[in-house]
Amino acid sequence: MEFGAFIPQGWRLDLVEIPVERQWDTMVAVAAVAEETGYESIWVYDHFHTFPGPTTESTFEAWTAMAGLAEATDRVRLGQMCTANSYRTPGYLAKITSVIDVMSGGRLELGLGAGWYEGEYLGFGYPFPKPSVRIGQLDEAVQIIRSMWTDDVTTFSGTHYELTNGHNYPKPLQDPYPPLWIAGGGEQLTLRVVAQYADYANYFGDDDTFRRKTTVLEDHCRDVGRDFDEITLTRNFDCVIAETETEAAEKLEQWLATLPDDHAAMRRKGAVVGTPDRIGERVAELHSLGIEYLIVYFPDATWGDGMRVFGEQVAPRFR
To answer: Per the confidence metrics, is the pTM higher than 0.90?
Structure first.
């Protein structure tokens, strides 16, 4: 298995106690811990204001952060979970991703999804069409981006996008192009896009739901003539880890106290909490579902040692 770690960027209210002038340095310091402790990648969310609702707290924009983290790190790969396709035109996103792949020495992972956060769309002036339109846009965007990554000139005429003589230089350093992660678990439309184009799939749900969606993805792969084994299954999860159960429980309460009550209840239900052995048991369960890549969110990344404990005591058991 491989492991990534989320970098706190404010979207999940994880920079609240840190003065604005120290927030970027804090993000870079967390990235350094991930690099030191062997994580394969670091990740940010592509959002513009806080979740579950807008506040006056900071949220660092994903691709600006990608550029900074490309310069601040040497080894870890750089991902987004996930870029909302509608926030940037496909041609523009192809340009951004190509440049960051060059800046990072070929370390970019492109995470891409149809977008979902309606309040954020409206708050920043984007139309929010129905899901079938957004997924159709995603399908066309992937085609455009891959063409602009590889072809000398891109001309594209689709239902949602048109490009004429698009030139994109420099090209990405990675051959044939950066890995493409497609996030989303819609069984009729999104997973079909995953089957057609993705190197990595990322979708949510309890274990039974995950198994069902994986079966659906396999069916779509057969329909489009794709080898299912070419796609790596991935998962995100919240991890509260400490050397003892008591310490882990205390960390959990410290984290939840910073969140709105309704959001805290949701996070309490979804988080994996416990010692390295307990966390390791859950990782093994996820691996048994076919998951080969975990991206872990550590609520104590700015004030605790969870990222380091997991990186040193859990991840090596599965590599």
So the answer is: yes
